[in-house]
Amino acid sequence: MATSGDTITVPVDVAAQLLKEGYKYLDVRTQEEFSKGHVEGALNIPFMFKEETGLVKNTNFVDEVCQKLKKDENVVVGCQSGRRSLMAVNDLIAEGYKGVKDMGGGFAAWIQIGYKTCVV
């Protein structure tokens, strides 16, 4: 496990084990990315939206998460490659979330290992 301040990044195999132990999975990719495939049982709240100029931060991200997840819940946060999820975890920790972990390598690493996925 790698740490950056209060942020904990776990490898995909550890994230998969945490999910088996009852952690929830928060997928912070765009809805378009999510619809093409995601971790089974994932909750999708985009950290960024795709616009003509590129990806733009979802200014309501923390509020949307607060509506769905309690601050004391254990959550693995993932995106496509690990960059957005790391930023999302930092924002959630700043908001008072305690049990959040970033999944290093993101959904791309999840697929590469061959873990089960779902399509909407």
TrEMBL record:
Residues of the Rhodanese domain: 19-119
Source species, domain of life: Eukaryota
UniProt cross-references to Pfam families, sorted A to Z: Rhodanese
InterPro entries membership: Rhodanese-like_dom (IPR001763), Rhodanese-like_dom_sf (IPR036873), Thiosulfate_ST/Rhodanese-like (IPR052367)
SUPFAM superfamilies: Rhodanese/Cell cycle control phosphatase
Protein name listed in UniProt: Rhodanese domain-containing protein
Organism encoding this protein: Adiantum capillus-veneris
Upper lineage: Eukaryota, Viridiplantae, Streptophyta, Embryophyta, Tracheophyta
